[in-house]
Amino acid sequence: MRTALTDLVGVRHPLVQTGMGWVAGPRLVSAVAEAGALGILGSATMTPDGLRAAIRKVRSRTRQPFGVNLRADAGDARERVDILIEEGVRVASFALAPSRELIARLKDAGVVVVPSVGARRHAEKVAAWGADAVVVQGAEGGGHTGEVATSVLLPQVVDAVGIPVVAAGGFRDGRGLVAALAFGAAGVAMGTRFLLTADSTVPDAVKAVYLAATVRDVTVTTKVDGLPHRMLRTPFVAGLERSGRLGGLVRSLRHAAAFRALSGSGWAAMVRDGLAMRHGRELTWGQVLMAANTPVLLRAAMVDGRTDLGVMASGQVAGVIDDLPTCADLVGRVMAEAEEVLAALGAPGAAP
Known about the structure:
The protein is of the alpha/beta class. Helix 3 (48-61) links the parallel strand 2 and strand 3 (66-70). The chain is globular, with a radius of gyration of 19 Å. It folds into two domains: 4-201 and 323-345, Aldolase class I (TIM Barrel), CATH 3.20.20.70; 204-316, no CATH class. Helix content is 48%, strand content 13%. The two termini are 14 Å apart. It has helices at residues 4-9, 26-34, 48-61, 77-87, 100-108, 120-128, 150-160, 174-183, 192-195, 204-212, 235-242, 245-263, 267-281, 285-290, 293-302, 327-345; strands at 15-17, 38-42, 66-70, 91-94, 112-117, 134-137, 143-144, 165-168, 187-190, 218-221, 229-232. The strands form two sheets. An eight-stranded parallel beta barrel has the order 1-2-3-4-5-6-8-9, surrounded by seven helices. Strands 7-11-10 form a three-stranded antiparallel beta sheet, with no helix packed on it.
């Protein structure tokens, strides 16, 4: 299926696997790329050296295009951009809007720039700065999220910008892809659906918790890092919700120290990142400190399998997923269903 997205990034199918921290590593990304979709490495939880090694590992497994997701507010964002350029990565995606300077640096090197946004005004801004495409995530999406549903936000952005728009938040199958195309999108991005595949390195016990979840078992909380964060509702998350301000402060300090040890970052670098986050997101200092919780608590579940001590970012779509296909099977299934739906609708050019 050819769309503006497939033409832009050189993949066969208009599907994107989002850059999830601790989840979107070389094995998942290369499997997605080989299946004909766009896989994106989640680099926020990697050191710069780890990022370079991960890029090379993906390239050793596939010759297909892939991307890297970056934190635009990271103190070492420029260094990471240089790594992408040096390693010849096709696509740079961003969880937050990158600066005009970062966009220009990447575009001058021939890298396709695809920021993720959650509001029309943010899409307009990055489009004006030269972004090649934009991923628009509605409230149904996992991780940090907004309040506007994908079905409302997506057409707003499509009407506002003249670049390809990729829809995210609530997608898992071919019906969703066709719906997004009808709204004017050039493809869909999926996080939770690719997390729940046989190629994902997430521990089996954690996948089982996702598969057992209903749509009512997915909640939004601000207790992890001070920002609205969609995740599975678990006894551990319920405990976070009950904790007071003092308990949250102590927990934040402990997790900040743990993240420093895991990431190899010095305290000075973490302070610089905190300053950038506070400026870019207009956070309070308490929220900046709480932000250290996110990578540590996600790692506990997604890497160590400790569902009792970690959190599991999740889109609402987790409540209607019940299997673990390979990425190849998933992509093939989504595209086959999309063709069937288009044919049933009598769309011009659809498969007979």
